[in-house]
């Protein structure tokens, strides 16, 4: 199913923001993020038809809810969290109809480790970072590539990569902490996390 971008061209929504002259155009947002959103969906949903349906669903939700975004700088993180919530809803519906495999129930909390839950929770936050940071952390934090191997594969000095990873992690930490609070034990191990009340999105 194709994305109805045509309707955006005759019904472009321009939302005035708090700062004079600051606007967000739905069509501009979609043209900028459609490809990366589709790539994010493909990483979590195997069927291409389902991906197209979910992408259209996200477009409609964006059209309906973008008025809640008060800060243009947080638009990307809001959009990818919206995509993550849409994927979760998709699998919940399939679970109720019993048309779902055990491996697809990654959002279920029962029996799932905190680190596993955080891994799925944090994906949209990584995708919301600038592309260079998102690519770096996706490979190292999510795919498990060691920093040494990554440096060798990309012809970088190990010390340079370590510095880049640290800066990218700091950006991610600031973004993540806006929505989620992580609890650790006396040894620094993560034992729980929860959504902050001020965050509009699910953690």
UniProtKB/TrEMBL annotation:
Organism: Photobacterium gaetbulicola Gung47
Pfam family, one: Sigma70_r4_2
Domain RNA polymerase sigma factor 70 region 4 type intervals: 122-172
Domain of life: Bacteria
Keywords noted in UniProt: Sigma factor, Transcription, Transcription regulation
Molecular function per GO: DNA binding; sigma factor activity
Family according to the record: Belongs to the sigma-70 factor family. ECF subfamily.
Sequence ranges assigned to domain RNA polymerase sigma-70 region in this UniProt record: 30-96
GO biological process, one term: DNA-templated transcription initiation
Name of the protein in question: RNA polymerase sigma factor SigZ
């Amino acid at each position: 199913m194709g994305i109805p971008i045509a309707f955006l061209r005759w019904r472009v929504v321009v939302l005035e923001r708090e700062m004079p002259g600051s606007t967000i155009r739905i069509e501009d947002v979609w043209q900028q993020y459609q490809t990366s959103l589709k790539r994010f969906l493909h990483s979590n949903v195997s069927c291409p038809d389902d991906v197209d349906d979910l992408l259209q669903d996200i477009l409609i939700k964006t059209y309906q809810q973008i008025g809640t975004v008060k800060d243009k700088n947080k638009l990307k993180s809001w959009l990818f969290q919206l995509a993550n919530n849409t994927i979760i809803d998709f699998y919940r519906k399939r679970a109720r109809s019993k048309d779902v495999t055990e491996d697809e129930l990654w959002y279920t909390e029962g029996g799932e480790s905190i680190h596993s839950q955080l891994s799925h929770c944090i994906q949209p936050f990584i995708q919301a970072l600038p592309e260079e940071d998102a690519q770096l952390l996706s490979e190292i934090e999510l795919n498990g590539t060691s920093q040494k191997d990554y440096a060798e594969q990309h012809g970088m000095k190990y010390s340079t990569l370590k510095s880049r990873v640290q800066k990218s992690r700091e950006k991610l930490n600031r973004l993540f902490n806006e929505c989620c609070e992580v609890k650790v034990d006396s040894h620094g191990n993560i034992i729980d996390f929860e959504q902050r009340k001020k965050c509009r999105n699910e953690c």
